Fold these 3 entries.
Entry 1:
Amino acid sequence: MSCSITLKNISYSNKDNLLFKNINLSVGHEEKVAIIGSNGVGKSSLLKIIAGIEESFLGELYLFHHLIKDKKDYKKFRFEVGYLPQDISSFFLSPTVIEDVMFSLRTTGINKDEAYQKALEILEQLEILHLKDRIIYELSGGEQKIVALAGILITKPKILLLDEPTNALDEESEKRIIKILNSIKKSMIIISHHKSFIEQLTPTIYKLENKKLIDYK
Ligand SMILES: Nc1ncnc2c1ncn2[C@@H]1O[C@H](COP(=O)(O)OP(=O)(O)O)[C@@H](O)[C@H]1O
Ligand SMILES: [Mg+2]
């Protein structure tokens, strides 16, 4: 199987607290995998390891079959991986929706006019074109999550890492996110508490429990 993400014997401690030990996981090409688990078990920590943010783990992380040994290795794949953190309060770097979505693309070296056009396209695709000139911090939580997703998707990553993409969202926003994620063909790891949400996205669900990742039926 062609794997986008492979974890081999990943163990991680936060301070002196062992959160998980010898975790193995493979996410295939365009496969969607969900991880559930109680508060504080280490779901976000695991996703940060895969996102290249948390480096103090044991074991091996592979992206597209390449062993990632350090930040320098990870940098080669930085445009292949889109990471939506659990807390998006410090995610946005520009005041307005269009500027922020363009900004992501500008970091890849694309010129301003082209970035503007591509930003319009992605906003249209996610059905938030009407928000383009709005100040991000004046939007609802659900709208902000979709803007954040636009900023991630515009660089066309092959992998999406989504940490509780629907936490604190109303039913309507949750439905929109389900529709968007189901329309995207990419490898994904989605973390959520919401079983009903997850089940509408993928049959492949694991639970982080007792420091292990176990099949969840
Ligand atoms: N920056 C931090 N400093 C100290 N402890 C932390 C930090 N971030 C998370 N933790 C602790 O690590 C554990 C796992 O956190 P996290 O990975 O966020 O869990 P989850 O996403 O499953 O709720 C929790 O007990 C949390 O309190
Ligand atoms: Mg978390």
Entry 2:
Amino acid sequence: MIKLFALLLLFSYNIEKQRVKIYIQEHKQVYQITDMDISIEHLKEGYAESHLSEKEIQKLKDAGFQVEILPEETYPKADYHDYAGMVAKIDSIVNDYPSIATKFSIGTTQQGRNIWVLKISDNVDTDEDEPEVRFIGIIHGDEPVGCELLLYLADTLTKQYGSDPYLTSLVNNREIFLIPMYNADGRENSSRYLADGEDPNRDFPVPDGSPHGSVSGISQETQELMDWLDTMNIVLSVTYHGGARIVNYQWDYTDEIPPYYELIRRISIGYAIRNDSMFLDPDPSYADSGTIRGYEWYQVLGSLQDWAYHQTGCIDLTIELNSTKWPSSSELPEIWRQNRDAMLWFIEQSGHGVWGHVTDANTGNPVPCTYYVLPETTKVFKNDSIVGDFHRPLLTGDYTFVFMADGYNTRTISGVHVRYDSTTYLDVQMYPLVAVNISGTVTDSAGLPIDSARVEIIGVAATYTDQNGGYNIGANAGELYFVVSKTGYATLYDTIVVQRDTTIDFVLRTLNQYDFPTTDTVDIPDNDPNGIYDSLFVDGHLNIEDIEVYVNITHTYISDLIVRLISPSGTGVYLHNETGGSNENIIGWYDSELPVDGPGTLADFQGEDAYGWWRLFVSDNASWDTGTLNGWTLRIYTPDNYTGFSKPDMIGGIDLDRAVSPNVALLLVPEKGHYNVKVVDVAGRSMRILNNALLSTGEHTVNLDNIRVPGVYYLVVEGCGRMFKKRFVVVR
Ligand SMILES: [Zn+2]
């Protein structure tokens, strides 16, 4: 009775809808069509194809589209596997290779056919710690080439297992799920659709909840596939189609860029580039290296790839295999040749990136969890809840993973280096939520107690030590991030795994304070945003815990001024930013006496190595009032001991006053332009070093090796309306 009803629906559906060609002149017209709630089935150069009701055809015509009724297609079915042939084929594979091939059904079609999955893997009946990869052959019943490819693939993997090392490794280390004929009813009826007339690739929930599909609700096959995929942990998947030759990726439903867009595009190109016809001769020809973002081609609401990525985190691709949906079977070996390497690479790629395993730190048992990978917080993935494994392809880089599980502390793992084309293994131990008490002392390096030191566990609690240096703090067991600090000491950061009540003692290193002064006197050019740079060299490797800077500027109107401090690492902080109104002079210590205006604060320098050239930029940005930089001093607080590292083998050509035996002059160019650089001796004889050289803003070095006679010299730099002269001494 149910079957009869379904057949009746199919019958009435075919009467109602006709195959049509909708002519388009410009690509943007495809969005006008989909905006009218008309689903495009194939997009060709110059026209779109669909199946439409009289009413829909009229709607298009009213909107000015030329619509042509087409006859239904006929297909050369000989030598293709029909449903019975497909079942017989996978049965013979399972029969011949029972240790690496098995089949199971995820449900039945509306007309009662089993939807078979052929699984290929070693230990094929066990869910192992291996990445899962899935292929669907036929989703549109009249696009059958994918089924043939999956049968070729199954043959190749099983027959050459044990003899071909690469194929053997894929079978041993991946779980490969093939659904050769998902829409078996459509295939048997030579129809694109499910038996109820629904387009199977317009029937899935749209990520933003938009309505979809031509039949209300979710069809039986769609629900069965979603239920199965929800229990799986598939990393990468492909659904094959016909009627074009291109890899199509997320999103179909919106023009917005999907999370991990660059990764998805890279994997898509990875498939296409291994398929010479798809990469070199794609259809449509305006493809991006054989690929296209779904919406950029045409909008589809309710596609499998959108649902699968949104719901399960699986990077699911829609791959159009061939411009002719149902080519002569004699072309199949060539289409298999085109796709073979791409399919094998795709299986391999599902295990690249991170291969992780999440377990309970105490028992070692798998822990079901969810996780995300910073900086992308919008996409949350899950691991395999039974085995505990997870697999995440990523572009090469350093990532932070955050794992969450019921009954466990959230676990953050930073600095995980991941490569796109190889595997990083990651063992994640989760700590159960158990209350623990942590106590201990904070002392200095001589063992003397430090009172009022702050002991903080990030995200948990903070406390202060008593006069004996003792502290006591509660937390949940797990990996805890301690920060222990006290003015005058180097702040201590430590990550400690705490599983029970524990004593932890901390030793804080006393901070040393070192001053680096310069007494250069430099006039500040009036009303010139290019300003001046003055440099200062710190000749010791000192880790900056804290920093202060003393500035001495005499000026008659300080809101004309910008003062900016730039570290050797290139960090820049605006000490003074045209504030202070009509006040005179900036003299004092930032930030203990003078507030830092920003952008930036002196804390921005924390953790940097102080070694190298520091620069102070000063500019006067209004006319009339003028002033002078009379010197400045860096005060560095560091746990390191200053011993002096080495004399720099260069002099600051423009503004460093330091007599050394020079090999190299350092030029700090305030403005891009043409410069002359020369060296003049005390007798006035000059040697040209650079003649009318175009120099960009910033540091440049000039070789002074040719100056061999010991004595006093001047380095003279001229250009851009400026002249700089510096005295230096050569001692060879
Ligand atoms: Zn299709």
Entry 3:
Amino acid sequence: MGVIELFKDLTTEFASLVEFQARFYSEEACADYLFAQKWPCGFICSRCSHTLAFRIDTRRLPLYQCIHCHYQASPTVGTIMESSSTDLRKWFTALFLVSSTESSVHALRLSKLIQVTYKTAWLMLRKIRQSITQADHSVKLTGTVYVDEGKCGKPWTNNFYFEADEFPVLVGIAIDDQNQPTYVKIQMVPKSDYTDTDILPRAICAFHDTHVDDEATMTHSARVRMKRKDMRGYPTFKKAKTWIKKTFRGLAQHHLQHYWNEFCWRVNSKFHNQSPFESLLNLCAFTPSSLYANLVK
Ligand SMILES: [Zn+2]
């Protein structure tokens, strides 16, 4: 990609970027890594479950043909990279930049770094963030769960009512037996579920039904009854607001939920000592490209 000056502000990440590019030096190296993510115990035919296949190397990416039913599968089938004409190396670099830098990456910068059009970079990032959102929806908060209310948007006032450009969020944090946080979620509240001054009870019920395990003990704290220092999720929420303001200025409200989810994914990966790149690639390897197409419809 050769635009070294654009990596200047990655500072401590620069060494690992070199390492990263040395590891994923070719399309084949990326395809082999994807194969291992998709089929960690070896090839399994998605049509007949047979475990032996021929490898066909005459295409841009290798194909695996089941020796029983002759079904052909690419390592990108069922991933966000399926049917994309963009090189796997560029996809992998995008995943690296999203996962390995504190500030993430926006579409204009990504388009310059991997030399694709702005539209392509924007779509790649949307698909990556959609994968994070889908993965978040599959996780429920367990143990002791605290749900706090917060608000964001312009002008970020400390009033207890919501200004025209402000909107409420619910911050849920799960705590384990050792009093350590295990998972955090930040969810925007739909317009129909709050008034000028309050989040309605049905929003809390919806949060519980969607994001909290049935056996968890949930405590909800309304803003008017709580001091910030007593809100378990407030430090994470404060950092998330600062991260979004600094990194992604002028985001439309309808896109914001994906950025809350990206921030929470970063925090949750740290809680569980997961490698951010591997964790992100794994999410993207199990999110079909078609899912995104259906969602934007
Ligand atoms: Zn088969």
